[in-house]
């Protein structure tokens, strides 16, 4: 059990809840290194009929810890064989039981202040270009345009506009690259003391990336967790730049990530 910061309550003035999770269905975009979402209705109505006519349906769905809207565990990334805190990755990982340290089961439900960085809004475009990098200066200027500030412990929501392509996997995972933050932006956010960095793209960082330097810097070097593939369009439309944010990962022992359904309340 953990206590909520009482200072968060002032963020809720209208009582409006925004769903920031993308829908799950066969064919959704997914990173090529992670499994796709799969679904079958394993038991259909009429397969078994009980006395008095009752019947039921149930499902089988498959997905990875990084499929759809999800949260990376601290142990998702290692650098030179080490997880955050100098933990030797090979010594704590197991094919069947996952990560003995830094797994997603160590992440408590997230209740925090979130700030939307509407970078396309500041740039007066609908969506950023393929492979366009977002710098620390871009984030700082976006905050100024919004009239917001980032505080210690916040969740940074990075909007690129890429959510518009969710129903078009080929565009969402464009071979020409996707927009995202660069190392300079990641350093800016860590210096501000954010707890989590979230984005509306597959990788959060700018793609192509040969080194995964943003993931390494945030996760392996600083223990700042990453959320990916959020739907941030409605927050931008409503100009809801600061919100009461909630996201709960599944307590999957040893997992390197988990699906989430984040919400923002204003």
Automatic annotation (TrEMBL):
Domain of life the protein comes from: Bacteria
Entries under InterPro entries matching the protein: KFase/CYL (IPR007325), KFase_sf (IPR037175)
Any Pfam family the entry gives: Cyclase
An MF annotation (GO) of this entry: arylformamidase activity
SUPFAM superfamilies: Putative cyclase
Gene Ontology BP terms: L-tryptophan catabolic process to kynurenine
Protein known as: Cyclase
Organism: Desulfoferula mesophila
